[in-house]
């Protein structure tokens, strides 16, 4: 199988798995106990915290382990909203956030918070002038993702962060799609809070982290034994944490090389399709996008049928986010680009990984051409 859905999840790197294994068996200690078994777990956990911090230019004390990107987003957004609700109740976000951010904002709206959803236009990118215009006296939080999980567009996080800092507004970014794929430095990006998930960077599912800048305070969402600076109590998921740490260590070591390699494959794929298949288009900005993302649109077909045709040819791809692909509504991200519903439905997301080869990409181009041609021949939309 050729796996081209790395934005949904990625395979666990064998080195990551190897690093995790002892913590399921002989090193099973509770990291909060004081005898040697517990100390070994604690040390492994703290080494992992250093690896996560190094990858994003943070210090280890600023890393809180969570169950993944969804929890990190909830912790950042609700934690800030509840902490500062007496100061103001206005939040700024974008129209293309992952459901972990979008639905959290919608939930807060039901509790009396007001949320501004910034437009992203045809290129899929938030504009600085819109951020400036949206800021109010009572704005307590800006939350804008680093790169979009569907169309892969990269947002001007450093610039938005600079504005937020000057105005004294807390700034959170969901960086689940960028950490390990492009350089992410919390200081250069001017963020106060940043979400990470292990399974998007060749680590295990169910583990992630939230960067919480020193001096930034959150209201805890769960209460218990005081672990993770009382922000995330509960016995630590040591194997998962070790896996996340290893994935970050490997990502840092290979970042430049992987980024270049995957970008080359991605460009080969986009050119191979756009040059050889009529009425095919790239969604979102062609340059300000993740190195591994090709989000394509084909007139006269349905993305779901194309995904099934590709599956039959041994290619795993997606129409958009794994989270919304069960609903038949067009994705809110594609609608935010100003696409018509039929155009949105004709879209395909290919997200590449380091294990893909140029031969995989050639085969994929050929398979997409065949599948799109077959589907168009059957389509009343195409043949009218
Ligand atoms: C995958 C993803 C999440 C959710 O992360 P989980 O670890 O699966 O909860 C959040 N935000 C973005 C941008 C994602 O791509």
Automatic annotation (TrEMBL):
Cite the entry's keywords alphabetically: 2Fe-2S, Cytoplasm, Iron, Iron-sulfur, Metal-binding, Pyridoxal phosphate, Transferase
Chain residues that bind pyridoxal 5'-phosphate: 69-70, 149, 177, 197-199, 235
Pathway as given in its UniProt record: Cofactor biosynthesis; iron-sulfur cluster biosynthesis
Q: Which SUPFAM superfamilies match?
A: PLP-dependent transferases (SSF53383)
Q: Could you tell me which Pfam families the record lists for this protein?
A: Aminotran_5
Q: Which residues form the active site?
A: 323 (cysteine persulfide intermediate)
Single GO MF descriptor: metal ion binding
- Per the UniProt entry, the Enzyme Commission number(s) are 2.8.1.7
One GO biological process term is:
[2Fe-2S] cluster assembly
Q: What class of enzyme is it?
A: transferase
Q: State its cofactor.
A: pyridoxal 5'-phosphate
Domain Aminotransferase class V: start-end pairs: 2-363
Key word Iron-sulfur present: yes
Q: Name one GO cellular component term.
A: L-cysteine desulfurase complex
Q: In the UniProt record, does the keyword Cytoplasm occur? A: yes
Membrane spanning residue stretches: none
Reactions accelerated catalytically: (sulfur carrier)-H + L-cysteine = (sulfur carrier)-SH + L-alanine
Compartments in which it is found: Cytoplasm
UniProt family annotation: Belongs to the class-V pyridoxal-phosphate-dependent aminotransferase family. NifS/IscS subfamily.
The record's listing under PANTHER family reads: CYSTEINE DESULFURASE, CYSTEINE DESULFURYLASE FAMILY MEMBER
Extra remark: In Archaea the pyridoxal phosphate cofactor is not covalently bound to Lys but ligated by other amino acids.
According to the record's subunit comment, the protein's assembly and interactions are: Homodimer. Forms a heterotetramer with IscU, interacts with other sulfur acceptors.
Role summary = Master enzyme that delivers sulfur to a number of partners involved in Fe-S cluster assembly, tRNA modification or cofactor biosynthesis. Catalyzes the removal of elemental sulfur atoms from cysteine to produce alanine. Functions as a sulfur delivery protein for Fe-S cluster synthesis onto IscU, an Fe-S scaffold assembly protein, as well as other S acceptor proteins.
Q: What is this protein called?
A: Cysteine desulfurase IscS
Q: What species is this protein from?
A: Methanobacterium alkalithermotolerans
What does the record give as the organism's lineage? Archaea, Methanobacteriati, Methanobacteriota, Methanomada group, Methanobacteria
